[in-house]
């Protein structure tokens, strides 16, 4: 399955939650063609990353226990868990992005 979202809904640095059934996907826009989509639930203890996540370069830091996740791979680079953050492939479709779920 996939979700389509209009790029014009995002300003640089903005993040928004989109729903895919019961799953919340956090979409992050870092400017240019850099869109990322990750699961909104931290794999450590479940904090909601739209509230607790801060983007530093290409890492998303969950401020509940300061785990740093790569936005590109979901890999935890340091912090409280070794569990990866589920990420979703984002495909550029011109005025829209498509998120593969
Ligand atoms: S819940 Fe995110 S690091 Fe603990």
UniProtKB/TrEMBL annotation:
Name it.
Sulredoxin
GO MF annotations, alphabetized: 2 iron, 2 sulfur cluster binding; metal ion binding
Which cofactor does this sequence's record say it needs? [2Fe-2S] cluster
Q: What residues does the Rieske domain cover?
A: 2-99
Q: Which residue ranges run through the membrane?
A: none
What would be one Pfam family of this protein? Rieske
What are the protein's UniProt keywords?
A: 2Fe-2S, Iron, Iron-sulfur, Metal-binding
Look up the signal peptide feature and give its range. none
Against InterPro entries, the record matches this protein to: Rieske_2Fe-2S (IPR017941), Rieske_2Fe-2S_sf (IPR036922)
Q: PANTHER family given for it?
A: FERREDOXIN-RELATED, RIESKE DOMAIN-CONTAINING PROTEIN
Protein's UniProt keywords contain Iron: yes
């Amino acid at each position: 399955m996939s979700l389509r979202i209009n790029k014009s809904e995002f300003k640089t640095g903005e993040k928004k939650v989109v729903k895919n059934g019961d799953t919340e996907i956090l979409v992050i826009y870092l400017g240019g063609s850099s869109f990322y989509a990750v699961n909104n639930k931290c794999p450590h203890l479940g904090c909601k990353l739209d509230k607790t996540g801060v983007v530093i370069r290409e890492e998303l830091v969950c401020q509940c226990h300061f785990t740093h996740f790569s936005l590109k791979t979901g890999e935890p680079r340091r912090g409280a868990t070794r569990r990866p953050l589920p990420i979703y492939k984002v495909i550029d479709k011109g005025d829209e992005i498509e998120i593969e779920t």
